[in-house]
Write a structure and sequence with these properties.
Elements (H helix, E strand, L loop, with lengths): L5 H18 L7 H5 L7 H6 L7 E5 L5 H10 L2 E6 L2 H13 L5 E4 L5 H4 L4 E7 L9 H10 L1 E12 L1 H4 L23 E4 L18 E4 L4 H10 L3 E8 L10 E3 L5 E3 L9 E7 L2
Parallel strand pairs: 1-2, 1-4, 2-3, 4-5
Antiparallel strand pairs: 5-11, 6-7, 8-11, 9-10
Helix pairs in contact: 1-5, 7-9
Protein name: Methyltransferase type 11 domain-containing protein
Pfam families: Methyltransf_11 (PF08241)
InterPro entries: Methyltransf_11, SAM-dependent_MTases_sf
């Protein structure tokens, strides 16, 4: 990365370290259900990322590891998870031990991957609210490629750039309140008392309220992967979300979210699969 983003990363890390203790108690994550065998994975990735039995899988920005462990327990993958939050990685390791699901967890920033990971994987996976914390997608894509075996797969499912623009402050209409892309690497700054895992803000009051994020266009995402030498196999877009983007949204039985009264035909998530030659 050409610019120094250290202060932004440090602020975000403090916030995510604090979020772990709230997320493990939230209905959104349903940790107790997971402990009793419920998968934390959603229908999109379960449909699109298959044939993982015996495959090595690296999960980037894994939070406290529920998805990582789901790939191992339910799909037979040999898993490694990486996240920059110390508290998240400690919790992930604890879950791995308690549930007796073999896994390796590494605390590191994604951009430090070339210096901390020397193994290459059959699959690199990342999902749901990941790209918004990354200022430089060129460096990110190079890190992804660094971890992949020849012929390996990279899969991502995340908020669609259009979905990132939705203004959640208005319940009576669907409007756009945020930019399509960040200019010159300048982050957007938020002051947030709570968390997406508690959208009503009833139970979560945080000390670390400041967070920084970056908006990325679809062309920026795809071009970064292509420039890193990966070959795109598919790109899908969906009107379903993975959290409550807007006050009118409700959670479906399958864990995805959709608008209840309003029916804007706009993409909220995207997924893509790329392969290393």
């Amino acid at each position: 990365m050409k610019k120094n983003y250290k202060s932004y990363f440090e602020a975000n890390q403090k916030r995510w370290d604090e979020l772990v203790s709230h997320h493990i108690k939230s209905r959104y994550y349903d940790l107790e259900g997971f402990k009793h065998g419920k998968t934390s994975l959603l229908p999109t990735e379960l449909k699109e990322l298959t044939n993982l039995e015996g495959k090595s899988l690296l999960h980037l920005q894994c939070h406290f590891g529920m998805d990582t462990l789901s790939w191992a327990r339910d799909h037979g993958a040999i898993v490694t998870g990486l996240d920059f939050s110390e508290n998240a990685i400690e919790m992930a390791r604890e879950l791995s031990d308690v549930l007796e699901i073999p896994a390796t967890f590494i605390q590191a920033n994604v951009y430090d991957i070339p210096t901390v990971i020397h193994e290459q994987f059959d699959v690199v996976f990342t999902s749901y609210g990941v790209l918004c914390w990354l200022p430089d997608l060129t460096g990110w894509a190079k890190a992804v490629s660094h971890c992949m075996k020849s012929g390996g797969r990279f899969y991502i499912v995340d908020t669609h750039p259009y979905g990132e623009m939705l203004d959640e402050r208005y319940s009576d209409r669907v409007s756009l309140g945020y930019p399509y892309t960040s200019k010159n690497g300048v982050p957007h700054e938020w002051e947030e008392d709570g968390t997406y895992a508690d959208p009503e803000g009833v139970t979560t009051i945080l000390k670390n309220k400041t967070e920084y994020g970056w908006y990325h266009s679809m062309s920026e995402i795809i071009n970064a992967l292509l420039q890193a030498g990966l070959h795109l196999e598919f790109l899908h877009e969906s009107t379903k979300g993975f959290f409550k983007y807007h006050p009118d949204m409700v959670k479906r039985a399958d864990g995805l979210w959709e608008f209840k009264n309003m029916r804007p035909e706009i993409p909220l998530t995207f997924s893509l699969l790329a392969r290393k030659p």
